[in-house]
Design goal:
The protein has six helices and no strands. The protein has about 120 residues and is mostly helical. The longest helix has 27 residues, at about 40-70. The chain is flat, with a radius of gyration of 18 Å. The two termini are about 20 Å apart.
């Protein structure tokens, strides 16, 4: 109910604020990391920047989903993201670290998500 009463910029700020406060506790580590990122080739810096942009996009899309339907439905769909991480890890890095048990579990998550979406209409 709270997300229906506050704006998207407020939700984004409330999402980022705790992370920023934790980051302030590690100034030396952050400075070293910034130097390391600055020394990377532009393509790798771009990929690291995409982490921030995709995280922001995830927050915005979750907000839109909760406002458009309900929090329960949005969270059930959101739990399927590990499967997408596995697919993109394979596509981008050719890493496949899944076994049969994980694949069966992922299939069940997708099946459950599909059933929930179909029955919520």
């Amino acid at each position: 109910h709270a997300l229906r009463r506050v704006s998207l910029p407020t939700v984004v700020l409330l999402t980022a604020l705790p992370m920023a406060l934790v980051a302030l506790a590690f100034p030396a580590r952050l400075a070293a990391d910034w130097r390391a990122v600055a020394a990377l080739p532009a393509g790798e810096r771009w990929l690291i920047g995409m982490i921030a942009l995709t995280s922001l996009a995830g927050t915005v899309l979750l907000y839109v989903a909760v406002r458009g339907r309900n929090a329960t439905l949005a969270s059930l769909i959101e739990i399927s993201y590990p499967a997408f991480v596995a697919v993109f890890a394979w596509l981008l890095f050719r890493e496949w670290q899944l076994n049969s048990g994980v694949l069966v579990g992922a299939a069940l998550v997708f099946l459950g998500t599909t059933l929930i979406i179909i029955n919520s209409r």
